[in-house]
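Researcher: Next entry in the queue.
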Amino acid sequence: MTAPGERGQGGALAHALRNPLSSVKIALQSVNRDAPSPYANRARLALREVRKMERLLSALAECGSAPHMRPQVCDLGDLVVRCGEEISEELALRKASVNVRVRGQLAPVLCDAARVRPLLSQLLLETADRAQGRERFEVDVELSEAEGGMDLFLPLPAGMQGSAATTCADALSALLEPAGGRAEWTGAGGGGLTLCFPLASR
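Model: Structure for this entry, 202 residues:
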């Protein structure tokens, strides 16, 4: 997300942007609550984008707060569940839910959870945005064993490789690679994004 020499600047910029963004959020919440329906609907859409910016700024601040990773032993299933809980309100607005499928045996992984969570949460929402026009939609997250790690697969189609989805994937790749993990896109037609987390016992 930022080059090594720019991490401190990126964190400072993120913190500087939070206050005006919070003011915009409060104003939009007021419009959403008190305005007539057409304006409230527009405010609701704007609030969705503000929350996206808040998560990306949180990730930027975390990545810029220190030059080194802070890996810890992590349960990947619990991490996904917690991300889903943190964005439960926005998932409900999209009439979407997170469904975790496990193939094989889950093993503890190394993960800088504080930095990974806002990025993974946004990727879950990017996937849920495919629910537009549907009554219900499940974000299928697949966890499986891989050589030397655990894979987390998200069904993000090729057309979503852009904007926030690509930004989050690139930032996650930068967090995972120093510990031996990776993030990679697979092709269209059943493709998506695979995040490989290194095993804690490796």
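Model: The chain has a mean pLDDT of 78.
Researcher: Noted, moving on.
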